[in-house]
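Interim report to the steering committee. The following record documents the input for Three-Cys-motif partner protein TcmP (260 residues).
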Amino acid sequence: MKVGAWSEEKHVALSRYIDSARKARAKWGYASFIDLFAGPGRVLNRDSKIISDGGVLSAWRMSQQGGAPFNEIFIGDVDTESVFACEKRLVAAGASVRTLVGSAAKTVDEVLAALPKGLHFAFLDPFSIEHLDFEIIRKLSSRSNIDILIHFSVMDVQRNIGGDFKLSSSRLDAAAPGWRANLNLDGVPKHEQVNAYLQYWESLVSNLTTMQVAQNKPLFVNMNRGPLYRLIHLSRHPLAQKLWNTAAMPSSPQQLLPGF
């Protein structure tokens, strides 16, 4: 899967959190990692042409190195060939894997039906925000001992929010149901509209899942400093929030832009 250089920073932040949580994970008899947008498990930097591990493989290898490996990895994807390639790579790396084919909105139910009691960590990394159906988050949050790390595409919101606001349906509806009825964008400056959408989304998280959004929401940008996405961590436990707020510090400068 071809990606930009910023994808590496995302996987670094993910791996740092997996490593920082190893002591907490080791206290549980069972710990799982869930990736419903797994892809093939490997990525190609379109600029450097370097091939490296994708998110789920990065997470698995880091859990091994930290001495508290996940007991089970759940992966899903709409592309059959990709998800089974990912499965082969994880199995070769020593992971116990359950593989599901289909959209995340459907496979989340299969995961929850098969998920034993334990400590769980879900990584939601969709290609675009229209696939980040809020129901996926709400359903995962039904497990009391779960953290969720989300790729929240600022770029998609920025591109679509103005044009979609007065349409009968929007590509942004699934991620933040009711946003057009609850946001008066006519009174919001253009450079603040993405933040307004994000704040509304965060209110849904608080009201519908009882999970908390971590303070650190690093913004990743492209080579022209254009905003791409934020990594947003959801949890209920103060320790998880503390670990993420430290782990999320990027290894290379990702400056916040005005209005984001």
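Confidence is low (pLDDT under 50) at residues 251-260. The committee is asked to note this result when reviewing the revised timeline.
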